[in-house]
Design a protein that fits this description.
mainly alpha; 18 helices
C-alpha cells in the first residue's frame, strides 16, 4: 500500500511529465556528471567539470553524496527519462516504511500502515516533489522516524542504541546537511527530555557517543568539506530570498514570485500544524496527553512550529553560528525542521500517527 500511494503521487507525471521544480536542474545535472565520471573510472567525484559552462565547481566536495550517488545509480539502470520518477518513488516508499516500523510499536498493522502512508505522501512531501525538487531533502525524510524509534528503544526497552543512532546521524550528514543539523538538534531535545524524565545520565552519554560515532562514519565527507571551506566564500551562497528572515510564514519581500511560493507553503504548514492541534485535542479528550510520549511529541512539534515564526530569528543567528558547512544552506534548515516536525493523522477513535510539517525552499 505504501508503494501504491507513492506511485499515486506520480500519476500526473504520465500526463504532464516530470515536474521541473526549483532544484531539478542542479540534481539531474549532478547525476549526469557523476555517471559520466564513473564511465571514466572516477568512483567518487570531487569536481563537477560541466558546471558553469565548463568552468566547473567543487560541487561534490561540499554537497552530501547520498542523493547524487543514488540518482546516478538509477540513471545507469533505468532510462534517463524516468530516473527522477523512480528516485521519487523509491524515496517516498522508504519514508513510509520507516514510519511503519516506528508506528508498529503502538498500533496494529492496519493503523500503522495508515500512519506510514500519511507520512509518505504528506503535503510537504508533495511540495518537494512538485515545486522544489529538493531530492536530497526528500531522502532525509526517511531518517526522522528511525531517530525517534531508536531513542524510544533506548528509553523504554533500555537497549544500547549508540550504534544505530550513530548510523542515523551519519546518514543524515551524508544525505542533506541542513537536515543533519536539524536532526542533531532534534536528538538533543529528545535525549534531554528523556534523561530528565528518567533521571538517567546514561542517555546523555549514549547520545554524545552517537554524535561522535556519526561524525566519524561520515568523516570522509565532513573533513574535506570543512577543510576546503577556506577556498570558497560560502557566504556568497546566501542571497536575498535564501535567508531565514525571508522564509518565515507569510513573510513579505521584494520578490513577488518568492512571496507567492512562500504563501503556498505557509498554508501547507498551517494545515499540518492544525492537524497537530486536532491530534492533541483528541489525545487530551482521551486522557492520553499526560503520558510522557505524548508530551514529547507535542513539544517537538511546537518547537518546529516556533522556528517558522519571525520571533525565532535571533535563535537562527545562534544556530547558524555553529552550523559549520551549513552557513550557505541555512534556509533549508528552516524547511527541514518544519517538514520533519510532529503532526498527527486521526483514524477511528482518534488514534494519532506522526507526519511532517513545515516550510522552506532551499536544496
Amino acid at each position: 500500500m505504501i508503494a501504491a500511494a507513492a506511485f499515486a503521487v506520480e500519476v500526473p507525471f504520465f500526463f504532464f511529465g516530470t515536474p521541473s521544480g526549483h532544484d531539478v536542474e542542479f540534481h539531474l545535472y549532478s547525476w549526469l556528471e557523476v555517471l559520466g565520471q564513473w564511465r571514466h573510472g572516477i568512483f567518487y567525484p570531487r569536481w563537477a567539470g560541466l558546471a558553469h559552462f565548463g568552468y566547473g565547481e567543487p560541487r561534490f566536495i561540499f554537497y552530501p553524496p547520498a542523493s547524487w550517488l543514488l540518482g546516478a545509480t538509477l540513471s545507469a539502470i533505468v532510462p534517463w527519462t524516468v530516473a527522477a520518477s523512480v528516485y521519487i518513488w523509491l524515496v517516498l516508499t522508504a519514508a513510509g516504511i520507516s514510519m511503519l516500523v516506528l508506528a508498529r510499536r503502538w498500533l496494529e498493522r492496519r493503523d500503522a500502515l495508515f500512519a506510514a502512508v500519511l507520512y509518505a505522501v504528506n503535503p510537504y512531501h508533495l511540495v518537494i516533489v512538485y515545486w522544489r525538487s529538493a531530492f536530497a531533502e526528500l531522502l532525509a525524510a526517511c531518517l526522522l522516524p528511525l531517530l525517534l524509534l531508536f531513542i524510544l528503544k533506548a528509553v523504554e526497552d533500555e537497549q544500547r542504541m549508540t550504534v544505530p543512532l550513530g548510523i542515523v546521524l551519519a546518514a543524515a550528514w551524508l544525505t542533506n546537511a541542513p537536515a543533519a543539523v536539524m536532526i542533531h538538534y532534534s536528538m538533543a531535545l529528545l535525549i534531554l527530555f528523556f534523561a530528565i524524565m528518567k533521571r538517567s545520565p546514561r542517555l546523555l552519554l549514549d547520545g554524545a557517543a552517537a554524535v561522535a560515532l556519526g561524525a566519524c562514519l561520515a568523516s570522509f565527507y565532513l573533513l574535506p568539506a570543512v577543510y576546503e571551506q577556506k577556498w570558497a566564500d560560502i557566504g556568497e551562497a546566501v542571497s536575498a530570498g535564501s535567508r531565514p528572515a525571508d522564509n518565515f510564514l507569510f513573510i513579505h519581500t521584494t520578490d513577488a514570485d518568492h512571496d507567492a511560493f512562500n504563501r503556498m507553503v505557509s498554508w501547507v504548514a498551517m494545515l499540518e500544524m492544525g492537524v497537530i492541534v486536532v491530534a492533541a485535542t483528541v489525545a487530551t479528550i482521551q486522557k492520553r496527553m499526560k503520558t510522557p510520549l505524548w508530551q514529547l511529541l507535542l513539544g517537538w512539534g511546537t518547537v518546529c512550529a516556533f522556528f517558522l515564526l519571525p520571533i525565532s530569528l535571533i535563535f537562527w543567528s545562534c544556530l547558524d553560528s555553529g552550523a559549520g558547512t551549513m552557513v550557505g544552506q541555512r534556509r533549508g534548515l528552516a524547511g527541514d525542521a518544519g517538514q520533519h516536525g510532529i503532526g498527527g493523522g486521526i483514524r477511528g477513535y482518534g488514534r494519532v500517527h506522526a507526519c511532517g510539517c513545515g516550510s522552506g525552499r532551499a536544496r
